Amino acid sequence: MERATFGGGCFWCIEAAFEELEGVESVTSGYAGGHTEDPGYREVCSGQTGHAEVVQIEYDPDQIAYEDLLEVFFTIHDPTTKDRQGPDVGSQYRSAIYAHSDAQLETAEAFAAELEREGVYDGIVTEIEPLDTFYEAEEYHQNYFEKNPNDAYCRMHAAPKVEKVREKFAENAAADD
């Protein structure tokens, strides 16, 4: 198993989207990229800790490649808006890739550069840096979309990301249990 850590707005939304993929064993919501030790949700939302809301994905590289995860990541959020995704505004909602190895760092940098070169995006602002520390978010944030499918925020923001993954990445979709 390997890990990947991404921030692309509210972690509820990106967690739900990545859980749709075959080869993804688990997705954990949390915080990374800040300067406060073991922050909580309210602290992160204040913008004072420097953390981003992120998900840490545990995946089987024999079933899904890191590049496939990057493709999904760049598809389900807007990597050209600084500190904002949809209605969520603040540095905690920034676009970020936190690499677990030099290989991931190089792959993510090359992937973003290629998207720019191909004209898929103009002005990618995604931070790409080594992961320092990942802090797991409070339990009530874990699997939030699954637990709260009728929540208005989830219906308006998470559900469309899930549908996009189901449609665009059907060949990588996890089998229903």
In brief, what are we looking at here?
The chain is α+β, with helices and mostly antiparallel strands and 177 residues long. The protein has a single domain, classed as Peptide Methionine Sulfoxide Reductase, Chain A. α1 runs parallel beside α6 and α3 crosses α4.
Q: Biggest sheet, in brief? A: 6 strands, mixed
Shape: globular
Distance between the termini: 21 Å
Low-pLDDT residue intervals, each spanning 5 or more residues:
none
Helix content: 25-40%
Number of contiguous helices: 6
Mean pLDDT across the residues is 95
CATH domain topology: Peptide Methionine Sulfoxide Reductase, Chain A
CATH architecture: 2-Layer Sandwich
Order of helices and strands: EHEHEHEEEHEEHH
* Content of β-strand: 15-25%
Tally the beta strands. Answer: 8
Summed up, the domain count is 1
The CATH class: Alpha Beta
The CATH homologous superfamily is named: Peptide methionine sulphoxide reductase MsrA
Output the structural class. Answer: alpha+beta
Biggest β-sheet: strands ordered side by side in the sheet: 7-6-1-3-2-8
List the main descriptive attributes of the protein structure presented here.
177 residues, alpha+beta, Peptide Methionine Sulfoxide Reductase, Chain A, 6-stranded mixed β-sheet, two-stranded antiparallel ribbon, 6 helices, 8 strands, globular, Peptide methionine sulfoxide reductase MsrA, L-methionine:thioredoxin-disulfide S-oxidoreductase activity, EC 1.8.4.11, oxidoreductase
